[in-house]
Amino acid sequence: MHEMAIAQGILDIVLKTAVEHNATKVTGIKLLIGEMTRVQPESLTFGFAALSMGSIAEGATIEIKSIPLIGQCNHCNQQFTVERYCFLCPECNSASVSVISGRELAVDYLEVE
Amino acid sequence: MQIKVMTNILDQNDQIANEINKRLSEKGIFVVNLLGSPGCGKTSLLEKTIVGLKAELSMAVIEGDLFTAKDAERIERHGVPVVQINTSGGCHLDANMVSSVLNGLDLDHLDLIVIENVGNLVCPAEFNIGEDVKVTVLSITEGEDKPLKYPTIFKLASVIILNKVDLLPYTNFDMQSAITDITNINPDTVLVQASCQTEAGLSEWYTWLKEQVRMKKIRGI
Predict the structure, then answer these.
(1) If I label A83, which of A4, A18, B60, B96 is the partner at 20 to 30 A Cα–Cα?
(2) ipTM of the shown complex
(3) Quick check: helix, strand or coil at residue B205?
(4) Domain B2-220, CATH homologous superfamily name and number
(5) What does pTM read for this prediction?
(6) C-alpha dist (Å) from residue B192 to B11, B49, B186, B204
(7) Where are chain B's structural domains?
(8) pLDDT digit string (tens) for B78-96?
């Protein structure tokens, strides 16, 4: 539902970066999207296409790298893939777990002319 | 040509959110972002909280809805300063919206600001709006499966209020399942079983809130 707000955020970063590097056309955008954000790629791509019409980013191909949800136990340092949003350490059952990946919402790089 | 960017998409929002939190922290104000579905009882909980605590705490409310000032009108009747943000279709509050209404409040004489977010279990979780804590309300009638379906808003909550427990006899809400799922998603959260009708659990919520306000005044951050 909030893919439009995220698409606007992406467009702002893309246009700012393109201007800073004197690019005349943005042809590709690589995004890092964490699994826990639940962003829908189709909605995001659709939203971006709509917002970027008429800009130098119009028509840019969006590539999304999905980042898995990984936790690290603060007690035994075990890293684990978080399954079914269970944030208990599978090794020692500690409830003290940090999320080390899976919440990313980032523009990684652009392809420009 | 490839240009490395590595920029967080919500950086701009987060920057404004941090500025809001800094500004309010300098005044020693504790800020709650109140979240939950439409109809889960956020405004009712807020009304009860005002009545329960206004003798001890100076409070203000920022209301967020797509349209109408209905919630702000309810809060206003309790004699508490309130401002209404209408997103006109936007499904969540963002930091810019909150920043734009802060000057409508007398920040020099407040202990607590509660920002009641747009009713939505999805989008508001992703947008920091300058709060110290997120508090998520889930009502019994929504079903015990919601935490696993909408994990982020439960993962990030410092307090999760299971509201409308007076309706338990009339539903097949599986309390044990809800508690297990919530504990797995967010082991550190404070879980309160509450009812705005019977006032069950509310004193536990008030005690937690007063303690946070007290500690905020001491540490200022």
Answers:
(1) A4
(2) 0.85
(3) helix
(4) P-loop containing nucleotide triphosphate hydrolases (3.40.50.300)
(5) 0.89
(6) 33, 14, 14, 7
(7) 2-220
(8) 999 999 998 888 888 999 9
